[in-house]
Design brief:
The structure is a single chain. The chain is of the alpha/beta class and about 350 residues long. About 45% of the residues lie in helices and about 10% in strands. The protein contains 14 helices and 9 strands. Strands 1-2-3-6-7-8-9 form a 7-stranded parallel β-sheet, sandwiched between helices. Strand 8, helix 13 and strand 9 form a beta-alpha-beta unit. Helix 12 runs parallel beside helix 13 and helix 13 runs parallel beside helix 14.
Length: about 350
């Protein structure tokens, strides 16, 4: 099977005949890559591309680890001319007046055209008929936070409701245009909405605020995305489990990255919610431990792997503590369990991959 066929089969709720996809969904921290360069005398030429476009340089690591290639288009809603924050989590704008002054640089048609051009490059150069393509969109919690700043955004639910709705209405129309132009250019297998709206104890906002400021926009965007025959999932760090019923109300079909340190249990999620998908879930803090610890973690998530609705990956980005030898071991065990999960009950068990 091609990488695309396996990816699509899992996102339709079926186990592939040979193995699950072997991917790194959230890719690697730049610090991790720099450590590997020093340890292995490599020069990966890794590019911090502002569009997160998967070019040949950034595919070197996929090929080094013999991972399935997958392509992502990140549709950033902020273009040239949008003011930069003064520091991490600081505001770009503080009022409706300031937003209107920079609106042409946010959610503009020139950005839509940029992502359409990326889709054309994928169609021309990257074998999308064999490689799964994911479109990553900014969500209705993420985008206002990026514009208003972390602290100011939380106050804005109460102090600036008109501005919050204006930001999300503009984002909604922008995302719909991106979906239409990109999906009419290439076949998109998966759309992921970036939100990061939970932390280790649950949601960063109340259900009332979610219903007022986010849900109406999801309820228009998600059916539009599904009309292009793609699966729609949502990315949020922290403990996502209390929020899953909220997402189901919006038509969301799955979640990532399922951070274990916040108490998330992918097996429980798969057992609780039928026809729901997940990507991630492997505890990244185990990746720097020995083989026995890694096997225990794979055994923990193995029942979820057998559902055919789950793609295993690190539950966020691989941290710098994971050296080349530990990642090599993780990669071998990942393939072993991805093959084991797809074996039929009447088949003899496959031999463990040499670690």
């Amino acid at each position: 099977m091609t990488n695309k066929q396996r990816f699509r089969q899992v996102l339709s709720g079926q186990l592939p005949p040979d193995r699950l996809p072997i991917i790194e969904w959230s890719v690697w921290w730049d610090k991790t890559i720099h450590c590997w360069e020093q340890q292995g005398n490599y020069d990966f030429h890794y590019l911090e591309n502002p569009d997160h476009f998967w070019n040949e340089d950034s595919q070197q690591l996929f090929d080094l680890w013999k991972l399935d290639r997958h392509l992502q288009i990140w549709a950033n809603a902020k273009g040239p001319g949008c003011p930069a924050p003064s520091g991490h989590g600081k505001p770009r704008i503080r009022s409706m007046e300031e937003y209107l002054a920079v609106q042409k640089s946010v959610c503009g048609d020139a950005l839509v055209s940029r992502y359409e051009e990326q889709a054309k490059r994928i169609r021309r150069d990257y074998h999308p008929e064999e490689t799964p393509v994911s479109l990553i969109l900014e969500g209705f919690f993420w985008h206002p936070r990026e514009m208003l700043g972390i602290e100011e955004h939380l106050y804005a639910f109460y102090d600036e409701p008109e501005l919050m709705h204006r930001l999300n209405e503009d984002l909604l129309q922008f995302n719909k245009k991106v979906i239409e132009r990109v999906c009419n250019t290439i076949e998109v297998d998966h759309i992921c909405i970036a939100e990061d709206m939970s932390y280790n104890h649950g949601a960063m906002l109340s259900k009332q605020s979610y219903d007022e400021f986010l849900l109406p926009y999801y309820q228009e965007l998600v059916p539009w995305a599904k009309s292009f025959r793609t699966v729609v999932t949502l990315d949020t760090d922290g403990n996502v489990e209390p929020l899953i019923p909220w997402y189901l109300q919006a038509g969301i079909q799955g979640v990532t990255p399922l951070e274990r340190m916040s108490g998330v249990d992918v097996v429980r999620i798969m057992q609780t919610y039928e026809n729901f998908y997940a990507i991630g879930g492997f505890d990244k803090t185990v990746m720097s431990m020995d083989e026995a610890a890694m096997r225990r973690e794979f055994e923990r998530i193995y029942p979820a792997m057998k559902t055919g609705r789950y793609i295993v990956s690190c539950d966020h980005q691989t941290p710098p503590q994971v050296d080349l030898e530990h990642y090599r071991l993780y990669r071998a065990l990942l393939e072993e369990y991805c093959r084991k999960a797809c074996e039929r009950e009447d088949e003899p068990a496959s031999a463990p991959v040499n670690t």
